[in-house]
Design brief:
The structure holds 3 protein chains of 3 kinds.
Chain A lengths: L1 H8 L4 H40 L3
Chain B lengths: L7 H33 L13 H28 L2 H33 L7 H20 L5 H14 L3 H11 L19 H47 L7 H8 L1
Chain C lengths: L2 H16 L1 H21 L3 H22 L6 H5 L2 H7 L4 H15 L1 H14 L7 H25 L6 H28 L5 H30 L1
The chains are: A mainly alpha, B mainly alpha, C mainly alpha.
C-alpha cells in the first residue's frame, strides 16, 4: 500500500503533478468529446434529410 | 499527388478506413507513454518527481507549434491551389492546436511554480507561446465572423500565414534571449541531451499526441464535409418548395407539337 | 504627381476633412495616460518606473482606434473596387493608405509622447529613445493594423475582432519600444532595441502590403 501512497505523493510534488495531468486529460477529453459529438450530430442531420428525400 | 486526395468522397472513404486504426494506435501510445512516464521512468536527481510533468508539457508544446504549421501549410495550399479540402483542414486543426497550447501553458505553469518559484514569467518563450494561443483564438474568431464560409476561410488563411513568423520565435527564443525556460534538450544540433529512460516515454507521448491529433482532425474534417452536404441538401429542398411542380401531363405537350 | 502620392494626398484629405481621426486619437491618448496617476497614485518614483510602458501601451490602443475605418469607407461605397482597377498595384495602394494613416495617427502620437512622458516623470535619458522608438514603431503599427483591417472587412463585430487579431501581433513592437526606453533610463545603450524596431519596420514594410492586399482581394471577390 505504501508503494501506491508513494506513487500518489509524487515525491512531495503531488499538488503540481496531478493537476497538470488532470488538466491535460480534461482538455484532451474536451477535444475528443467536442469532435465526436459534433460529428454524430451532423451525421444524424444528414440521415434525417436523406430519409426525407428518399420517398420521392 | 495532392489532387489524388482532392476528391471529398475519396477522403471520406480513406478516413473511414483509417479512423479505427488511428484511434487505437493513439490510445495505445498515450497509455504506454503514461505508464512509462508516470511509473517506470526514474525521478530526476534535481527535480524529483516533478519532472514527470515533462511527459505532458513537452509533447503538448511540440504539438502546439506542429498543429500551427499544419494549419499554415493547409492555408497556403488553400490560397494558392484552391484545394477544396485545404480550408476545411485548416479550420478543423485550429481548435485542436488551441487545446494543445492551453495544455502547454497550464502544465508549464504547474511545473514552473515548484521549479522556478513562480507561476508565470514574461520571458521570450512563455510570451511567444501565449501569443501563439491568441493567434489560434484570433483565427477561430475570424473564420467564424463571416456569414459566407469561404470569406472566413480565406481571411483566416492569410492570418495563419502572417502568424507563421511566431514559430521560429518560439523555437529559437531560448537561444536568442536570456530566458528562465530551459534550452532545447531534444531537437538540437548535437542530438538529444536527455537520458534514454526519459526520452522514450517522451517520444511515446509525443507520437501518441500526434496520432490523437490526426484522428480528431479526420473526424472534424468529416464533420465539415457532412455539414456541407447537409447545407446543400437543405438548399435544394428549399428551392424545390419555392418552385411549384408543373401540372400539365406530358401527353398534351406532345399533341401541341403536331 | 505620381499615382502613389496622389493616393496618399487623397486619403490625407479625406482623413483631415473627417477631422475626427487625428483629434480623437490624440484626445484618447492624453486622457488615458492621465488616468494612470489617478489609478496608481501620483507618486513620482512609481510613475517613473511604469512611464514608458504606459505611454507605449496607450499609444498602441490609440493607433487601433481608427484602424477599422482604414478600408471600410472605400469598401462600403464601392470605391475600393474602382481603386483596385487603377494602374497602381493594390499593394502600393495599401502602402499609400498606411502612410496616410500614420501621418494622421502615428506621427501625432510620436509628437505627443514626450509631452505625456513629462507628466509621468519619465527619466530624462529615456526621451530620445522614446521619440525614436515611437517614430520607428508607429509605422509598423499602421502596417500591421492594415493587415487586420483588410482581413476583417465586412466581418461581424469587425472592430473588436480587429483588436483581437492585431494586438498579439503588436506585442513585439511594444516589447522593444519599452525596452529601448528602459535601457536608456538605466544608462545602457538603447541602440540594439531601436535596431530591432527598425528591423520589425522593414519586415512589416515588406510583408504587410502583400498580406493586406490579399485580404482586400478576397473581400472584393
Amino acid at each position: 500500500m505504501t508503494a501506491l501512497a508513494d506513487f500518489l505523493a509524487m515525491g512531495g510534488y503531488a499538488r503540481f503533478v496531478w493537476p497538470a495531468y488532470g488538466a491535460a486529460a480534461l482538455v484532451l477529453s474536451w477535444m475528443l468529446v467536442d469532435s465526436v459529438v459534433a460529428y454524430r450530430r451532423r451525421q444524424r442531420e444528414l440521415e434525417l434529410l436523406e430519409r426525407q428525400r428518399a420517398p420521392r | 499527388m495532392i489532387h489524388r486526395f482532392a476528391n471529398p468522397a475519396r477522403f471520406m472513404r480513406l478516413s473511414a478506413a483509417l479512423l479505427p486504426w488511428c484511434a487505437v494506435l493513439g490510445a495505445l501510445l498515450i497509455a504506454a507513454g503514461l505508464v512509462f512516464g508516470l511509473v517506470l521512468a526514474p525521478a530526476d536527481y534535481q527535480q524529483g518527481d516533478a519532472v514527470r510533468i515533462m511527459y505532458v508539457h513537452v509533447p503538448a508544446a511540440w504539438m502546439a507549434s506542429f498543429v500551427y504549421a499544419v494549419m499554415a501549410a493547409a492555408s497556403a495550399v488553400g490560397l494558392i491551389w484552391r484545394h477544396p479540402l485545404a480550408d476545411i483542414a485548416a479550420r478543423a486543426a485550429a481548435p485542436l492546436g488551441a487545446g494543445f497550447t492551453a495544455i502547454c501553458l497550464i502544465t508549464g505553469s504547474l511545473w514552473g511554480e515548484p521549479m522556478w518559484g513562480t507561476w508565470w514569467v514574461w520571458d521570450a518563450r512563455l510570451t511567444s507561446v501565449l501569443v501563439l494561443f491568441f493567434l489560434y483564438l484570433g483565427y477561430i474568431a475570424l473564420v467564424n465572423a463571416f456569414d459566407e464560409p469561404t470569406r472566413g476561410a480565406r481571411a483566416g488563411a492569410i492570418l495563419a500565414l502572417v502568424g507563421i513568423v511566431n514559430l521560429p520565435i518560439i523555437k529559437f527564443s531560448v537561444d536568442w534571449w536570456n530566458t528562465l525556460h530551459q534550452p532545447a534538450s531534444v531537437f538540437r544540433l548535437g542530438g538529444p541531451t536527455i537520458a534514454a529512460s526519459m526520452l522514450w516515454p517522451l517520444l511515446a507521448m509525443a507520437l501518441g499526441f500526434t496520432v490523437f491529433f490526426v484522428t480528431l482532425l479526420m473526424v472534424r474534417m468529416r464533420t465539415a464535409l457532412i455539414a456541407a452536404k447537409v447545407r446543400a441538401l437543405r438548399q435544394v429542398a428549399s428551392e424545390a418548395e419555392a418552385r411549384p411542380a408543373p401540372r400539365t401531363p406530358r401527353g398534351s405537350l406532345g399533341s401541341v407539337r403536331q | 504627381m505620381s499615382p502613389f502620392r496622389r493616393l496618399v494626398a487623397r486619403d490625407l484629405r479625406l482623413a483631415l476633412r473627417q477631422g475626427g481621426d487625428a483629434a480623437t486619437v490624440i484626445a484618447f491618448f492624453v486622457l488615458t495616460v492621465i488616468l494612470f496617476p489617478f489609478g496608481v497614485g501620483p507618486e513620482p518614483l512609481l510613475l517613473q518606473r511604469i512611464a514608458a510602458g504606459i505611454v507605449w501601451v496607450t499609444a498602441l490602443l490609440a493607433a487601433l482606434l481608427s484602424l477599422d475605418r482604414l478600408f471600410l469607407a472605400d469598401y462600403e461605397d464601392g470605391s475600393l473596387e474602382a481603386l483596385a482597377l487603377m494602374g497602381l498595384p493594390l499593394e502600393a495602394q495599401v502602402a499609400a493608405k498606411c502612410l496616410a494613416h500614420w501621418l494622421v495617427t502615428g506621427l501625432p502620437l510620436t509628437v505627443m509622447a514626450p509631452v505625456l512622458a513629462l507628466l509621468l516623470h519619465l527619466r530624462a535619458e529615456s526621451y530620445p529613445a522614446l521619440v525614436l522608438g515611437m517614430a520607428l514603431g508607429t509605422p509598423s503599427l499602421s502596417l500591421i493594423g492594415a493587415v487586420g483591417a483588410a482581413l476583417t472587412l465586412g466581418a461581424r463585430r469587425g472592430g473588436v475582432l480587429l483588436s483581437l487579431l492585431v494586438l498579439p501581433l503588436y506585442i513585439p513592437v511594444l516589447i522593444f519600444g519599452v525596452a529601448a526606453c528602459e535601457a536608456a533610463g538605466a544608462g545602457f545603450a538603447a541602440r540594439p532595441h531601436l535596431l530591432l524596431l527598425a528591423a520589425l519596420l522593414v519586415l512589416a514594410l515588406a510583408l504587410a502590403p502583400f498580406a493586406a492586399a490579399a485580404g482586400l482581394r478576397q473581400a472584393l471577390e
